[in-house]
Amino acid sequence: MVTEEAMIVNSPMTTVIASTGDQGRRGTSPVVHEPAPRFHKVPSIFANHPMETRFGHSLFQALRHDVCSFGYSGGFRDEHTARLIDLGGAALDIQGVEGAARGKLAFIMVEAYQNIIRHRAEPDPPMSMGEGRSLFVLRCEEKGQHVVAVNPVRKAVVPGISELLLRLEGLDRERLKELFLTGLQRAGDPERRGAGLGLIEMARRSGGSLGHLLRDLDPEHALFVLAIRLGEASAYGTLIKEAATLHADVVANDVRFFHVGIRSAAVGEAILRLMEEERSATRNETSAVRGALAAMDAVNVPDAERQRGVFLLAGPPERSIILAGSVFSAQQASEFEREVARMGGWSRQERERHYRDSLLGRGADEVRLGLIELARNSAEPIEQLSVPVDGGVLVLVRTIV
Question: Which segments of 183-262 are extended strands (E)?
Answer without folding.
Answer: 211-218, 221-231, 255-262
